[in-house]
Amino acid sequence: MMLSRAKPAVGGELPQSSKRKKKGRKIPKLEELLSQRDFTGAITLLEFKRHVGEEEEDTNLWMGYCAFHLGDYKRALEDF
């Protein structure tokens, strides 16, 4: 099978509609992630807030709660 050099097999740029969708995304709330049982996303959000400096007083407790529900009991114990 001959491949054409005039037309690339793989596209390099994303369409404009995909670029706009990514810009319009919002950061989910912790309560939304917990209600969806997305504990990995919740831990990621809490770690990001800790890194940025927006850490709240109960962040460690929520990190332990999420780690427990993910089955990472050692990390949960350390966070509690």
**Continuous helix count:** 5
Overall helicity: 55-70%
Derived from helix and strand composition plus strand pairing, the structural class reads: mainly alpha
Radius of gyration: 20 Å
Quote the distance from N terminus to C terminus.
Answer: 61 Å
Portion in strands: under 5%
The SSE string, one letter per element, is HHHHH
Sheet with most strands = none
Mean pLDDT: 80
Low-confidence stretches: none
Shape: elongated
Q: How many E-type strands?
A: 0
Protein name: Intraflagellar transport protein 56-like
Organism: Echinops telfairi
Summary tags:
Intraflagellar transport protein 56-like; mainly alpha; 5 helices; elongated; single chain; 80 residues
Structural summary, described in words:
This is Intraflagellar transport protein 56-like. It comes from Echinops telfairi. Helix 3 packs antiparallel against helix 4 (59-70) and helix 4 packs antiparallel against helix 5 (73-79). The protein is elongated and about 60 Å long. The protein has helices at residues 16-23, 30-35, 39-52, 59-70, 73-79. Helices cover 59% and strands 0% of the residues. It has a domain at 28-79. The protein has 80 residues and is an all-alpha fold. The protein starts with 15 loop residues before the first helix and ends with a helix. The longest helix has 14 residues, at 39-52.
